[in-house]
Write a structure and sequence with these properties.
The longest helix has 18 residues. β3, α5 and β4 form a beta-alpha-beta unit. The protein has 2 domains: 145 residues, Aspartate Aminotransferase, domain 1 (Alpha-Beta Complex), CATH 3.90.1150.10; 240 residues, Type I PLP-dependent aspartate aminotransferase-like (Major domain) (Aspartate Aminotransferase, domain 2). By secondary structure, it is an alpha/beta fold. The termini are far apart. It is built from 14 helices and 14 strands.
């Protein structure tokens, strides 16, 4: 009998449990006829929140121009639209050549890290993080050094603690704002401190801002690029979340700050982008319409809107819970509750039991590269009444476990 095909050892150090064993078990239960409430993925279209019709029309109008490969950096109208957005944010010198379009932010994260890291180089990544960041660092030969963002501090980091973790091998600092999975929105004063750290230590600053327009109750999003002058800032955004077009796979990144000194690096990223020829061409035609058109996301995040009311339902249900507590999310489309217990708690066992007995799928908190096992992430995309029932089911399950 032949031995199993060997798997690359670096894959063993990668976790992405948002679509891992629990999600596979959920699909098995669905195949048996059970209805599963998928609270594991921020996928707006799956919950009836669709991209604006004008964006679809832009794609259809330009299909005849989409058969050929596009430029490896993206088509001009899309890049120019992103550059104009940055100009409107105060970065008036931003030009289209500073913009890359990719197959979602995920691809662009991989390209930027692959072009930057030597084996053993370190990247400062928040904990909890969106696990793509840690995975991409590991897969590109680097070492993810996690800086804590605890519930006790509103899931905000301590700049002094971050600076104490910097070594001669540190190459970059990752900031996720608004934050996935916690919903934290970083105040401008904190972002200024993080920018100053990156500048003092000559770190590339990676600003993951895919949820930039999704904030609640007056929370203000500050683009990191507006605060960085003396080092390179790479900002990431896209159509997936704000414009509810996850399946279109359109993301972008913008090089700002000290871009002259980063020219060789930008060209290295472009070389890697050329290896995959181009990103999805048809859906790039929607970028100009999306950024220049009516911003319907505000209908969802304002009082009475679907996301706002879903968030309120979760906050109220947790407040009434016997077992849960929550730092209210101020942005993005997730909540990151924790279980009130002084006992040892197994978040994976809890999530598995919840799925089997109540058909609710959540993501264990340790999946986001934290040690504290009391957290779990849920998306705010379902209707408010479904989220209220989900929290009630979670309480019932915890009655049996605690």
């Amino acid at each position: 009998m032949k031995t199993p095909i060997q798997t690359a050892s670096r894959v063993a150090d990668v976790r992405y449990e948002i679509r891992g064993p629990l999600a596979r078990r959920a699909h098995e239960l669905e195949a048996q006829g059970h209805e599963i409430l998928h609270l594991n993925v921020g996928n707006p279209g799956a919950f009836g929140l669709h991209a604006p019709e004008t964006m679809r029309e832009a794609i259809v109008r330009n299909l005849k121009s989409s058969d050929a490969y596009g430029p490896q950096t993206g088509i001009f109208p899309a890049r120019e639209a992103v550059a104009i957005q940055f100009q409107e944010r105060g970065l008036v010198d931003t030009r289209f050549h500073q913009v890359f379009i990719g197959n979602g932010v995920s691809e662009l994260v991989d390209l930027t890290l692959r072009a930057l890291l030597e084996p053993g180089d370190e990247v400062l990544v928040p904990a909890p993080d969106y696990p793509l960041w840690t995975a991409a660092v590991v897969l590109n030969g680097g070492r993810a050094v996690h800086y804590e963002c605890t519930a006790g501090n509103g899931f905000l980091p301590d700049p002094a603690a971050i600076e104490a973790q910097i070594t001669e091998r540190t190459r970059a600092l990752v900031v996720i704002n608004p934050n996935n999975p916690t919903g934290a929105v970083y105040p401008e004063s904190l972002l200024n401190e993080l920018a100053a750290i990156a500048e003092r230590h000559d770190l590339v600053l990676f600003a993951d801002e895919i949820y930039d327009a999704i904030t609640y109750d007056g929370a203000e999003f500050t683009p990191m690029a507006t605060l960085v002058d003396d080092t390179l800032c790479v900002s990431f955004g896209g159509l997936s979340k704000v414009y509810r077009a996850c399946g279109w796979r359109v993301g972008w990144m913008v090089f700002t700050g000290d871009i002259e000194r980063a020219e060789a690096y930008r060209l290295a990223v472009e070389k890697l982008a050329a290896l995959r020829l181009s990103s999805n061409v048809p859906t790039q035609w929607a970028v100009q319409t999306a950024l220049g058109g009516y911003q319907s996301i505000h209908e969802l995040t304002g009082e009475g809107g679907r996301l706002y009311e879903a968030r309120r339902a979760v906050i109220d249900a947790v407040a009434a819970s016997r077992h849960l507590e929550l730092v209210p999310p101020r942005g993005a489309m997730y909540a990151f509750p924790s279980v009130k217990t002084g006992r040892d708690f197994d978040d994976h066992a809890f999530a598995a039991e919840l799925l089997e007995h109540h058909h609710v799928l959540v993501v264990p908190g340790t999946s986001f590269n934290i040690a504290d096992p009391r957290h779990f992430r849920i998306t705010l995309l379902p209707e408010p009444h479904r989220l209220t029932r989900a929290i009630e089911a979670i309480d019932t399950q915890l009655d049996e476990l605690l």
